Here is the input.
Amino acid sequence: MTGYILKPFFDRVEILSDGANYLPDGTVVGIREKVKTSRWCPLAVVGSGSVPVIDTITDMILRAADATISVDDTLAILAESLAVIRAKGFAGDSPARIAIGAISETRGPITLFFSTFEDEAAAPFELHDRPFGLGQGEYPPPEEMAAAGWSHRAPLADYGAYLFEYMRGRKRPNPAYPEADLIYSIGGHLDLTVVRSDGYEQKRLVTWPDVVGERIDPNPREDPGLPHDDGSMFSDGSGYE
Here is the structure.
């Protein structure tokens, strides 16, 4: 599932997310910007899991935001909608986890999430507040994070690339498919989105050489270059004419 980090500050919410969509075996099927934002109120959504489910739920959330022009009203509608979806049943083979960063009219910067499957993190189909932020992925030991620039006050740009490079290099379980083989699951690119009361900032921090149709590989072999007539190689890829 997608790697992401959401962190609230006194005046904003920062979000990091990779850009690869992939099959359960780690094969990349697309690369895109995963954080979606409302046009009319300061609210951003990022999801992991089933892409059709993520897109459908994200569209529902953003439509509510556009209609109400209110973060608080949007979250109230979402909470009611999740209860209805849960009561009617939901396809267990299409799991998703959705995270939201927003500037509430009454609470200021907030981060929260919900899942559509039995999740070890929290009960499904319920909005869960995370006042100190939340993340999905495997982090280094605290002393290594501190050495890379982490602190409660540091912006994500100071150490986010380091964390995602660490996660990219490690095979991880898929929370929605805990019995499946471990896979490399961070790829495409790393984006930073900043949510403020008056708008958004979005920046590309890292781009990785992942290829659609292939599995994510954090340690690709070097291109051996072009062969000489005798079968040897030039290191720079040049050859005889």
Remarks:
- Confidence is low (pLDDT under 50) at residues 226-241.
